[in-house]
Design goal:
Elements lengths: L4 E3 L5 E2 L10 E2 L13 H14 L4
Antiparallel strand pairs: 1-2, 1-3
Length: 57
C-alpha cells in the first residue's frame, strides 16, 4: 500500500518521501484519536516547551 505525502517547503503532494523541489515530505494526516492516548503527555510537554521558547507562556 502506498501513501501520499505533502512537501513541507512547497506544499505539493507526492508519493515519494522527498519532493522534486528538494524538500522533505511528511504525512499530511493527523494521528487517529484514541481515548487511551499513549503519547499525549509527550505531545503536551513538547507543545509547552515550544511555547516557552517563543516566550508565549
Amino acid at each position: 500500500m502506498r501513501h501520499i505525502f505533502q512537501c513541507q517547503q512547497c506544499g505539493r503532494y507526492t508519493m515519494k518521501e522527498t519532493c522534486s523541489c528538494g524538500g522533505n515530505a511528511v504525512n499530511p494526516k493527523p494521528p487517529k484519536y484514541s481515548p487511551e492516548d499513549k503519547y499525549g503527555s509527550y505531545r503536551r510537554k513538547a507543545k509547552e516547551q515550544e511555547l516557552r521558547e517563543k516566550k508565549l507562556l
